[in-house]
Amino acid sequence: MIKKIIHLPIYIIASILFGLKTLLVYAFVFDMSIDNPMQAILFILNPFISAFVFFALSIWLKGKYQKLFICMGALVGSIIIWANTMFYRDFTDFITIPVMFQANNAGDVTNSISTLFHPSDPLLFIDVILIFFLSFKREAANYVRKKKSSIFALSAAILVANLLLAQVARPNLYTNVFDREDFVKNIGLFNYHMYDIALQAFTTSQIAFADGTKISEIRDYVKDVKSEEQSELFGIAKDRNLIFISLESIQSFVMKNEVNGEEITPFLNNLIDDSYYFENFYHQVAQGKTSDSEFLVENSLYPLPGGAVFFLRAQNEYNAMPEILGQQGYYSAVFHANNKSFWNRNNMYDTLGFKNFFDETAYQITEENSIGWGLKDKSFFTQSIKYLQELPKPFYSKFITLTNHHPYELGKEDASIEPYDSESTTLNQYFQTVRYTDEAVEQFFEQLKQSGLYENSIIVLMGDHYGISEYENEALGQYLEQEITPYDHIQLQRVPFFIHIPGEEGKVVSKIAGQIDVKPTLLHLLGVDTERDIGFGTDLLAENRKEFIAFRDGSFVSDDYVYTNETCYEQGTGSILSENTGMKNSVCEPIKEKVMQELNYSDEIVYGDLFRFYDFQSRD
Ligand code: GP9
Ligand code: MN
Are 471 and 446 members of one domain? Predict the structure, then answer.
C-alpha cells in the first residue's frame, strides 16, 4: 500500500500530505464549530481540494521547475499555515491583509512571536521535508497535453464544487460575511486568503479613486439638514458615565403588550415613566444586523447596501463616539460575551476608538450559564459589573445582550411566561426570551444601584433590529390580530429606545426617530458640540428634526408618509396614495429623492474613506 502511494505522481503525494497536515491544524489548533453535515464534509475535504488545485498546476512545468514548484509551494503554504497558527493563538482569528499592515498589530505579533511559538510547531513542516525528499529522489514526470487538460479540468471542477457547496452549508457566505471562521471551515484557509486579497485590492482601488473634494459638498448638505436649534437639555449629563445597552432583537411591538394575559416586558414598561422614551424609533440596519446598528450609533452614518461595513471598511477613518468622547476624557469599553472576531469587532472596535473589549474570554461560560448563542444575559451582566466598577471614570460602556437571539432558546428554569401558541416556534419562544432579557436588564439596574454607579450615569437602551422576520408574518399577524401589509411591516421595524437619566423625569417622545440620530442626541446630552461633525442624524431632543427616517433599501417614513415597495402610503392610516407610479406624480417623490441622495452621500463617505480629507478639529 505504502509502496503504491509512494509511486503516485508527486503532485498527488504532495496534495495528500499537505492536505492532511492542514486538516490536522484545523482540528487541533483552530477552534471551529461545525453546524451541519455538509459543513463537516467540506471541513474534511477542503484542505485536500485546495492542495490538489495548487499542486496540480505543476504538471504544466517541465523538469526541475516542476519539482521546484511543488517544493516551494509546500514550503510557502506551510509558512502561511504556521503564521496563521501563531496569530490564532494570540487573537483567536485568522490573518487578514489589513491586519498584517496595521502597525500596532504587526508590532504585537513580532514582539510575541517567541511567546506564541509552540514546541510542536516544527511538526508543521514534516510534510515539506517528505515532499522535498520524495521529489528529488525521482525524475520529474512528463505529461502529455491531453492528460494535462483533463487534470486541469478536474481541479477546476472540484474547486467550483467546493465553492458552491460552501454556499449550501452556509447560505450567503460570499455576500454576507459574519465571521472569518465561516470561510475557513467551508472553503478553506487558502481560498479564504485569496478572497481577502481580492477584497482588499477592490477596496484599495475604490479608495484610491475617491474624489476628495466631495466631502465639502457633503459637509454643506449636512449643515443644512442638521437641526438649527440645540436641545434645552444640552450638557445635562455632562461628565456622567454613559452606559449603553444594546437589546438583541427586541422590537417595540412587545412593549406594553401581553401574551397569555402576562406582561412581556414589565421592567421596560415601567422604565418608560422615568425616561425619555421614543415610541416611534426605527432600526435602520441592513445585512450587518447588530454590527450595522453599532455602526449607525457610533457614527451617525448608514450601513452599506450589501455586506457588513464592519467587515468591508474596518480600516477607514471615522469620527466615532468612543473617539470623540475619548477627547473629552472618557474611557470606553464594550462588553459582549461572544467570539471577538464575530462581525470583525476586534478590528472595527480599534478603528472606532474603543479602548477595551470584554469578549467571551473575559467571562466564565459553562453549560449551566449558557444557552443558544452563549452566555445568558443575567450571568453576562452579573459577571460584567466587577469590570465596570474598575473602569476609569467617566466611561462610555456598551453592553450587547445575546439571549434574545434567534432561535430564541431558553431552558424551562429561566422561562417566566408560557410560550405563545402559533405555527411559528420562533414567535412562540420569542416572547419568553424577550421577557428573560427584560428581567436581566432589571437585575442589571439593581446591580448598578448597589455598585454606586447608577447615580452618576445615564443609561441608554436600544433594540438593535427586528427579531421576527417577514417569514413569520402569518403568526405575527395572528398575535397582533391583523393582516400585515408592507405598510405595517415598516411600522414593525420600530425598536425601543430609552434615555434614562437618574434624577431627571423624562417623557414619551412621539416624533419619528431612528438609530442614525443616537450619536448627536447622546453627545449633546453629554455637552459635546457636534457642529464640525459629519453625520446624518439630528438631536432627538431638539425641537425640529429632518423630515424622514431612511431605510437602507430606500424605503422611508416621514411625519406624513410611508414609502416602501414602490408604494406611497399615508402615515397613520396606511391608505395607499400612489402605487408603482415611477413616483413622478407621487407626494412621496420629493422625499424619496432626498433619501436617495443622503444614502448615496453616506456610501460615498464610507466607500471612498472620505473622512481622511476632512479635519474634524478645525474651527472654520
Ligand atoms: C453576535 C451578536 C448577534 O455577536 O451580536 O449578532 P446578529 O446576528 O444579531 O447580527
Ligand atoms: Mn443582533
Answer: yes
Q: Which atom of ligand 1 is nearest to the CA of 248?
A: 9
Report the C-alpha gap between 338 and 380 in whole angstroms: 11
Tell me how far the alpha carbon of residue 290 lies from the centroid of ligand 1, in angstroms: 5
- Distance (Å, rounded) from C-alpha 407 to C-alpha 467? 9
Tell me, in angstroms, the distance from the centre of ligand 2 to residue 459's CA.
19
Among protein residues, the one whose CA lies closest to atom 7 of ligand 1: 290
Query: pTM of this prediction?
Result: 0.86
CA distance 78 to 582: 57
Q: Residue 401 is part of a domain; what is its CATH number?
A: 3.40.720.10
- Measured between alpha carbons, how far is 240 from 148 in angstroms, rounded to an integer? 70
Most confident of 232-236, 494-498, 563-567: 494-498
**The C-alpha cell of 600 is what?**
448615496
In a domain, 618, yes or no: no
How far does CA 345 lie from the centroid of its chain? 7
Does 510 share its domain with 598? yes
At 529, phi and psi to the nearest 5? -75, 135
- First-to-last C-alpha distance (Å) of the chain: 79
- Output the nine-digit C-alpha cell for 41: 464534509
Angle at 351 between CA 349 and CA 357, to 5 degrees: 20
pLDDT in tens, 175-228: 777 788 889 999 999 999 999 899 888 888 989 998 889 999 999 999 987 766
Backbone dihedral angles phi then psi of residue 508, each to the nearest 5 degrees: -90, 125
Which range among 106-115, 176-185, 521-530 shows the weakest confidence by mean pLDDT? 106-115
Q: Which domain holds residue 549?
A: 213-613
Q: Who lines ligand 1 at CB under 6 A?
A: 289-290, 338, 342, 400, 405
- CA 174/CA 568 separation, integer angstroms: 34
**Nearest residue to 249 via CA among 28, 558, 409, 467:** 467
pLDDT of residue 565: 85
Please confirm, yes or no, whether 290 is among the known catalytic residues.
yes
Residues 470-479 have pLDDT tens digits of 889 999 999 9
State residue 581's pLDDT score. Answer: 57
